[in-house]
Amino acid sequence: MTDDRSKPLTNDPQELLNSKHEADKHKSQFSSFVRSVSGEAPMEKGQVVEPQHRETDQQNNMKDVENRMLE
């Protein structure tokens, strides 16, 4: 794995675009790797996985109630 900090910082749009393409390629490779290791069906973009094992957060519940009262 390469260290991005070895490259000098730049404001050149072409270099920034190339860097973004490299990062996107790396993300794509990582996603493919995770899918192959997990063996699960690929998820759609933006899909949220609801954790079933977590208890509700009391502070968030209180904030939800407060927000509903303000509406």
Explained architecture:
The N and C termini lie far apart (about 50 Å). The chain is flat, with a radius of gyration of 20 Å. The longest helix has 26 residues, at about 15-40. It is an all-alpha fold and about 70 residues long. It contains two helices and no strands.
Helix/strand/pairing category: mainly alpha
Radius of gyration: 20 Å
Any low-confidence stretches, pLDDT <50, length ≥5?
none
Give the averaged pLDDT, no decimals: 77
Strand content: under 5%
Helix content: 40-55%
Give the CA-based shape: flat
Order of helices and strands: HH
Q: How many runs of DSSP E, i.e. beta strands?
A: 0
Number of helices: 2
Distance between the termini: 50 Å
Profile the largest sheet. none
Fill in the keyword field for this structure.
71 residues, mainly alpha
